[in-house]
Automatic annotation (TrEMBL):
Matching CDD domains: terB_like_2 (cd07313)
Protein name: Putative tellurite resistance protein B-like protein
Source organism (scientific name): Limimaricola soesokkakensis
Occurrences of domain Co-chaperone DjlA N-terminal (ranges): 23-140
InterPro entries given in the database record: DjlA_N (IPR007791), TerB-like (IPR029024)
Amino acid sequence: MFADLIRRLTDPAPERLPDADARLALGALLVRIARADGQYSAEEARRIDRILGTRYALSEGAAAALRADCEVMEAEAPDTVRFTRAIKDAVSYEEREAVIEALWEVVLADGQRDEEEDALMRMVAPMLGVSDPDSARARQRAAERMQS
């Protein structure tokens, strides 16, 4: 099902992704960060649904269906570099900051930060071209939103 998208993500000179594929790449990256600690909680899945639903104006059911597709895509995809490259090529800097903020929401969704998730975030932010200070501010915004 995702073979064509995965092929395009792994192409040495990938083209800009259509919106539907960029959605899958972003969702798969959200799933990857949620799975980074080896525990993919229901709260993390619900947070991904909310992020996808809000970002793409989807109903609860459509967001959950997109997340399910993203879970399959994440399991089949080769590495994080391809997702980040596809997202970096597909969206503006401000939108990439929003991606980092969304990733932090998923990291913080289960109430605990873990070494694997932190390590993946330290790797993903620069791959998306987001500076460390902007990533830190995105984490603070996500944490504040989670508390309210």
